[in-house]
Recover the amino acids of this structure.
């Protein structure tokens, strides 16, 4: 058994980290306090429709503000939760209540209906947890301690934020636009064309700096495709494209000559090695995670 086999044998004990697509889905939030206000912010970011149930007197000022400003997305009922019919047509249920028994009963009813549910006060019954978030446009980083220490997640978030340049979101937007242009030029799903596109995009992302991508405009993107993709998949130097960066050297992030041919270079590379970098950008969003499992600390 090699190291990887041992790793596979040990897999488990964490949770699935995914970027859940909630656009236009219906989310019920029972409660309107501070925790509910944080939930509203997270769910608005995902373009869902939100129903908030809470007596007016229990609303946190932030919840109140969200309700006033986002009538397009939030339906608010000034009353307590009334029973199981509130769950009809919901795709997700969140409780943020100071009433543990009610929370528990809503979780049970949601589970019977197979609706994913999170109860802010009962981690053991949650189908999923929220996490600390870093967002910059399409870049989405979630820090989760898997229920062990939410405050630790918040502290780690602050540390990670300091390590980012602030250019990542804009760079990813440009990469997304370039990928779309490439797919327009070379349509088709899967097979050799898919592999070639992935190799080229990965090579470009590996060799260019974040800043280089942020400086791309429409015309430059066409030039990258003309001078790169169309020329046997080489990675063009930023100077060829007319990008004026603040960096001194253009030898690429990993010191490779920046006119090397990606297709030739990666021909023998394992697809496992290519996949991680590819998918980080294929999604147009990056979800990084730190699952700090208690036994690791021992
Ligand atoms: C990350 C974050 C995201 C968010 O809420 O959006 C989040 N909690 C945050 C803050 C926070 N929450 C609490 C404190 C006080 C200090 C402390 O206890 O550490 C602080 C710190 C603060 O306010 O700074 C108290 C607390 N939290 C939970 C309970 C119930 C319990 O444990 O029984 C109690 C009451 C415990 C008690 O009564 O003692 C439960 C959960 N909180 C989670 C997420 C899920 C696990 C995530 C994970 O482990 O990574 C989970 C399981 C369920 C869920 O809510 O999904 C957000 C930081 C966002 C940011 O800063 O960016
Ligand atoms: N997950 C977390 O990160 C986290 C953090 C802090 C606290 N908590 C837990 O989350 C819960 C909510 O915290 P909070 O600070 O928002 O509390 P809060 O007291 O500010 O809010 C409670 C809300 O529940 C509403 N409510 C009460 N009974 C209701 C009913 N029958 N129907 C509809 N709404 C009702 C109130 O109007 C109020 O808006 C608490 O149980 C707390 O222990 C979780």
């Amino acid at each position: 058994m090699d190291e990887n086999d041992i790793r596979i044998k040990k897999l488990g004990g964490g949770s699935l980290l995914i970027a859940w697509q909630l656009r236009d889905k219906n989310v019920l939030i029972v409660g309107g306090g501070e925790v509910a206000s944080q939930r509203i912010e997270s769910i608005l970011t995902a373009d869902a429709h939100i129903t908030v149930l809470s007596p007016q007197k229990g609303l946190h000022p932030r919840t109140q503000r969200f309700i006033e400003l986002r009538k397009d997305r939030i339906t608010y009922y000034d009353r307590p939760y009334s029973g199981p019919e509130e769950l009809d047509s919901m795709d997700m249920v969140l409780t943020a209540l100071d009433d543990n028994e009610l929370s528990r009963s809503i979780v049970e009813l949601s589970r019977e209906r197979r609706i994913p549910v999170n109860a802010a006060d009962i981690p053991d019954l949650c189908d999923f947890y929220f996490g600390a978030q870093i967002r910059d446009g399409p870049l989405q980083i979630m820090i989760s301690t898997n229920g062990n220490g939410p405050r630790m997640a918040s502290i780690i978030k602050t540390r990670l934020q300091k390590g980012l340049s602030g250019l990542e979101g804009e760079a990813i937007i440009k990469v997304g636009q370039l990928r779309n242009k490439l797919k327009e030029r070379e349509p088709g799903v899967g097979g050799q064309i898919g592999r070639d596109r992935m190799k080229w995009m990965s090579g470009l992302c590996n060799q260019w700096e974040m800043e280089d991508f942020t400086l791309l405009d429409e015309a430059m993107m066409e030039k990258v495709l003309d001078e790169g993709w169309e020329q046997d998949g080489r990675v063009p130097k930023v100077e060829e494209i007319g990008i004026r960066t603040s960096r001194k050297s253009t030898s690429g992030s990993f010191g490779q000559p920046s006119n090397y041919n990606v297709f030739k270079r990666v021909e023998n590379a394992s697809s496992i090695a290519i996949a991680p970098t590819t998918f980080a950008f294929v999604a147009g969003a990056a979800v990084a995670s730190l699952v700090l499992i208690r036994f690791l600390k021992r």
